[in-house]
Amino acid sequence: MKRIQLKVAPDITGRKRLDIFVVESGVGLSRSQVRKLIGEKRIYVEGKGTKPGFILHGGETVIVELPDEVKQFYKPENIPIDIVYEDNYIVVVNKPAGMVVHPAPGNLTGTLVNAMLYHTRLSDEKISGRPGVLHRLDKETTGLLIMAKDTKAHLILAEAIRRREVKREYIAIIWGGVPDKGEIFAPIGRDPHNRLKMAVVPDGRVSKTEYTLVARFSFLSLLRVKLKTGRTHQIRVHFSHIGHPLFGDPVYGGRETHLAGIIPEVRAKAKMLLSLIERQALHAHKLSFSHPITKERLEFQAPLPEDIKSVIDKLIEEEGGGQIEHSLIC
After folding, report:
1. If both were cysteines, with which of 15, 151, 197, 249 could 280 make a disulfide (CB 3.0 to 4.6 Å apart)?
2. E strand or H helix at 212, and its extent?
3. What is the mean pLDDT of residues 121-140?
4. Between 265 and 142, where is the model more confident?
5. What percent of the chain has pLDDT over 70?
6. What is the pTM of this model?
7. Pairing relationship of beta strands 61-66 and 43-45 according to DSSP bridges
8. Active site residue: 68, 82, 124, 138, which one?
9. Cα 199 to chain centroid, rounded
10. Which CATH architecture describes the domain 168-284+297-318?
11. Is the confidence at residue 298, as pLDDT, over 60?
12. How far apart are alpha carbons 129 and 110 in whole angstroms?
């Protein structure tokens, strides 16, 4: 680990946030990297604050502890990947279940980044800390992702995501019934009881999810879901919070935990449906954005993966559901 001391000028002008100061200091970190290191307490003001918004007044010492380089993790690997669209600047991929987006401790190989580096070039990792990565999907969530191939495209798309100009729509199956339309507005942060999970917490980050009912079954609902913010595990956390966890989700109460609590009359059927899917029933179905260079508006759609489709097919077979749009089940 490399430890850097940054001295804040005693005559600093204006209100300077800690994260902005470090980005502008020349240590070579992006703002997202800085915020991550602050969260890990690797960047802090000596004797004072450790929050990104900490205001510097002049004369402070800022400590930056840089973790060891992880470039060796970015090894190109010949892994098949479903490329939906590609040009000289961007790639849109349809990520399968079971694939992590980028290398990290515990998943150093076999990731989407490893696969894409074998296929093509990606934007420099110094921009976001991970080559080409603009946004992520959970390991067991399937569907569409944009990746950048050069610095200019990366910076433009990252800003578009920050401004919420990149539109993402998911298909989800949840336990229970909900109104035809609704929104969930609840702050998300680390679960204070389990740091590996996220939760709705009072001091969490503002988070908003909108949904529209596609079909209602006896004890499950099929939804279209739109993210208005992009927090880690947002859809899974929000629906678990309102008592309707994603079907099959082992982490947020959508599998054995929920199965044990339902009435015996439907438990056997629910268990049969759970046998068809080993993960949360969540798929990034649609993605639309303006091309970073040509400005053309692009829209992509990924068909449902076989496991989610098999659950829906079985529900339709047993309960009907002719009103479900063909585009969802093809």
Report:
1. 249
2. strand 208-216
3. 85
4. 142
5. 90
6. 0.77
7. antiparallel
8. 138
9. 15
10. 2-Layer Sandwich (3.30)
11. yes
12. 18
CA distance from start to end of the chain = 50
Beta strands 282-290 and 208-216 are: unpaired
DSSP string, 262-317: S-HHHHHHHHHHHTT-SS--EEEEEEEEE-TTT--EEEEE-PPPHHHHHHHHHHHH
Segment 284-307 shows an average pLDDT of: 97
Mean pLDDT score, 222-246 = 96
Provide the residue type at 278 as one letter: E
pLDDT tens digits, 197-221: 999 999 999 999 999 999 999 999 9
Identify the residue whose tokens are 């502890």.
65
Q: What is the DSSP letter of 9?
A: P
- Model confidence at 321, pLDDT cuts 50, 70, 90, reads low
- Cα gap 210→199, rounded to integer Å: 18
Least confident window among 51-55, 123-127, 230-234, 272-276: 123-127
At position 275, the amino acid (one-letter code) is S
d(CA 185, CA 5): 40
d(CA 196, CA 194): 5
Question: For residue 26, what pLDDT is reported?
Answer: 63
Compute the Cα dihedral for 277, 329, 177, 320 and give only its sign.
negative
Which range, 100-104, 151-155, 244-248, is most confident? 244-248
Active site (annotated) includes residue 138: yes
* Sheet arrangement for strand 43-45: 2-7, 61-66, 43-45
- The class that CATH gives domain 2-66 is alpha beta
Please name which of 48, 82, 40, 87 lies closest in space to residue 65, comparing C-alpha atoms: 40
What are the start and end residues of each CATH 3.10.290.10 domain in the chain? 2-66
Give the amino acid at 115.
Answer: A
Return the structure tokens found at 11: 């005559």
User: Can you tell me the mean pLDDT for 77-91?
Assistant: 96
Domain at 71-163: CATH code: 3.30.2350.10
| Residue range(s) of every CATH 3.30.2350.10 domain in the chain | 71-163, 168-284+297-318
